[in-house]
Amino acid sequence: MALTKKAIVRSIQQRTGSSYNHSYECLETTLEIIKNTLSSGEDVKISGFGKFKLNDKSARKGRNPVTGETMMLKPRKVVTFQCSGKLRERLNT
Questions:
Q1: What's the pTM?
Q2: How confident is the model at residue 26 (pLDDT cuts 50, 70, 90)?
């Protein structure tokens, strides 16, 4: 089961003793800062957690799975995540 935004807000609320609305606003503000930073082309590095990086994917040949027709896929940007050494250690223990 995936961790949802609602579950994160509840966890913040329980750990900090703040209201649900305040916890929700804190999470929304954090996510908005990350989105704006990535949109501007900058990386987001969170010490002890990892790094979100924006990468360019070039145009490439693709195939429509329904019709089998070959087509060119447009270049696009993708976000990748590289976990920190501390997180990797914690995951592998």
A1: 0.81
A2: very high
